[in-house]
Amino acid sequence: MTLEVRHLNFAQGNHRILQDISFSLETGRFFALLGPNGAGKSTLFRCLLGLERPESGEVLLNRERIEKKSPQELARQIAYIPQIHYPTFNYTVLDMVLMGTAAQGREWSAPNNTQRQAAEEALERLGLGPLRRRGFRHLSGGEQQLILIARALAQKAALLILDEPTANLDYGNQLRVLLQVKELNKEGYSILLSTHNPDHAFLFADRVLALHDTRLAAEGPPPEVLTPKLIATLYGIQVEIHQKDQGLPHCVPVLPGASIRR
């Protein structure tokens, strides 16, 4: 599954949101999308999902423009995991995951055995089988996020787009969710994930896309592009990048009047 974005431009009225965005995500890669609030990350995702139509440029899946694909075809190729989800009804976990299989069945038809098997397999794959009869709204934030990932797996799409999936989670659940996403990446899934935490990119991503002031401010491997200068440009704070004993780099904020412990 190859995703190509070519010279994408998007505006709402006179407000420019995205300008000349181009990148290519090849099969099995893990891209982290960084940028400040309001930089256009969610708008970019909506364009990739065919929910917004850019004023110019194109989005291609396996070299075919997405507007030529039906919603069912897109759903078989791209799965979207939002940062938070509040269903109107307290569906069971199994029903939530079954919703991901809708594109595999006929419109308005009840889930068939193949769809139910796909949902069960997705739950078991993430170790969530014991939760199948629980109400989704009664789960913890980390459990809910894993259920949404299971729903994407049941969808059987090769590309997973995750919009700040750890934004509302505690430190432990952030790592648990990202470790599961990384495992899926190792199995061949292509990942495009937005985050505000540069350390998430250092830990898990192959490549970084940095959005700032409507444009891509940087693209490349995390250790090469996530510099103190770029982070200051994106977020307006000073950091030092530490790397001990050839381990993974990580960010340490430089606080006014404070010395940094190494």
Q: Top keywords for this entry?
A:
262 residues, alpha/beta, six-stranded mixed sheet, four-stranded antiparallel sheet, 12 strands, 26% strand, globular
Number of strands: 12
Shape call: globular
How do the strands line up in the largest sheet? 6-7-8-3-9-10
Radius of gyration: 19 Å
Overall pLDDT confidence: 91
- What's the tally of helices? 9
Percent helix, as a range, is 25-40%
N-to-C terminal Cα separation, in Å? 42 Å
Strand content: 25-35%
Quick one: biggest sheet? 6 strands, mixed
Structural class: alpha/beta
Low-confidence stretches: none
* Topology order in helix (H) and strand (E) letters: EEEHEEHEHHHEHEHEEHHEE
Task: Note down, in words, how this protein is organized.
With 262 residues, the protein is of the alpha/beta class. The strands form three sheets. The protein has a six-stranded mixed β-sheet with strand order 6-7-8-3-9-10, sandwiched between helices. It has a four-stranded antiparallel β-sheet with strand order 2-1-4-5, with helices on one face. Strands 11-12 form a two-stranded antiparallel sheet. Helix 4 crosses helix 5 and helix 5 runs parallel beside helix 6.
List the helices and strands and how they pair.
Elements: E1 3-12, E2 15-25, E3 30-34, H1 41-48, E4 56-61, E5 64-65, H2 71-77, E6 78-81, H3 93-98, H4 113-125, H5 141-155, E7 159-163, H6 171-186, E8 190-194, H7 198-204, E9 207-212, E10 215-220, H8 222-225, H9 228-235, E11 239-242, E12 250-253
Parallel strand pairs: 3-8, 3-9, 6-7, 7-8
Antiparallel strand pairs: 1-2, 1-4, 4-5, 9-10, 11-12
Helix pairs in contact: 4-5, 5-6
